[in-house]
Amino acid sequence: MEHVLARTLRIISAICGLILLGVVAVGAQQPQSPDQPATAGAAVHYDRMAAAKTVFLRNAGGDDIPFNVISRNFEGWARYLLVDSPDKADLIIEIQSPGEGSADKDKDSGQSKTNISGGGQQNQQAKPAIDVITFTVYDKNKRPMWIAREQPKFAGRRKTEETNLMEAAQKLFARFHDRVEPPAKP
Fold first, then answer.
1. pTM above the 0.70 mark?
2. Which of 70, 128, 131, 175 is least surrounded by Cβ atoms within 10 Å, i.e. has the fewest?
3. Nearest CA to 150 among 56, 69, 57, 49?
4. Which of 70, 68, 60, 124 is nearest to 98 (CA)?
5. 148 close to 112: Cβ distance less than 8 angstroms
6. β pairing state of 91-96 and 121-125
């Protein structure tokens, strides 16, 4: 009789353990609403870019247009306080863009002379450089956290090139903005 009773207790405790395990597993899968505090057992995702308060913007070279566009966007966003030194910043954002537009963009001479082996010269069509705007976010220890690149459309004239640089810089800022503050899902 004791043997049967002990066996029954083991079966009941095993069933209770499985039920408890199932309840814990289902509770862990339930999404928390934003107004509920995080529980001690739940893993909390910490986003350093979203938690940062101060930003230092650095122009790493090239044309000033992308840097100016991104700077104005940061000023208008008001999520971060822009600081004047990387030592005071939680995030350091570096903007590197294609070089200053060539002086002969509006001239009709789209050709350049190149040396050919043999000493002669031949006219060869100039090829546009493939350049990108790079938006790099560093933490205060200067470790890269996030990198995005955007290639502006090629333009034959300086005015069109400026417009394309502005559009590419806007896209980069929008990607960063959506990374830090994801848009609401419909």
1. no
2. 128
3. 69
4. 60
5. no
6. unpaired
Q: Helices in the chain by DSSP H: which ranges?
A: 2-29, 48-51, 64-77, 158-180
The DSSP line for 28-39 is HHSPPPTTSPPP
The domains of the chain, with CATH numbers, are 48-100+129-180 (3.30.160.150)
Burial of 61: CB neighbours in 10 Å, binned 0-12, 13-18, 19+: middle
| Reduced DSSP (H G I as helix, E B as strand, rest coil) percent helix, strand, coil of the chain, to 5 | 40, 20, 40
What are the structure tokens assigned to 59, written together?
A: 């122009």
pLDDT tens for 27-66 read 555 444 444 444 444 455 568 999 999 999 999 999 999 9
- Count the helices and strands in the chain (H runs, E runs): 4, 7
The rounded radius of gyration (Å) of the Cα atoms in the chain is: 29
pLDDT at 38: 46
